[in-house]
């Protein structure tokens, strides 16, 4: 066998070993545990004259022996056929090694969007919802991982903040 042929055989064997190694590595990584999350609740946070912030209370479990960085969240919330809102939020946080943490993940909705979706809706009305979330982590050895979540339930539309009464005499005397 000539020198060139030996080099080709050596290269082919090396490539076969490398590819087998990559496949084995993929199988090991595929069998690794991934972070898990459960959506515990949905509530209102800050309420302003034109918008409200929804807080998704998510319990995240980290199976790794190192802290797990939470990078961001994507979300889409609908009620029946009506898309209420969707977006992405940078929610940098860290989940402790071999532990869990409840994180309040914010999403903002404007009253104008809500009223478009539900013509004639009144504050205090309960509406059914379905929420689809995705949490993105930077997992060790695996890289970026997205964990999907979904939940359905009912949410009561809050009243817009207002002024109950004004004491004009008190304001004029100041």
Outline of this structure?
It is built from 3 helices and 7 strands; from the N terminus they run αβββββαββα. By secondary structure, it is α+β, with helices and mostly antiparallel strands. The radius of gyration is 26 Å and the shape is elongated.
Describe the structure.
By secondary structure, the chain is of the alpha+beta class. It has two domains: 1-31; 33-160, Immunoglobulin-like. 24% of the residues lie in helices and 51% in strands. It contains three helices and seven strands. It has helices spanning 3-31, 111-117, 168-172, and strands at residues 36-47, 51-61, 68-79, 82-95, 100-110, 126-139, 143-156. Strands 4-3-6-7 form a four-stranded antiparallel β-sheet. The protein has a three-stranded antiparallel β-sheet with strand order 1-2-5. A hairpin with a 3-residue loop joins strand 6 and strand 7. The protein is elongated, with a radius of gyration of 26 Å. The termini are far apart.
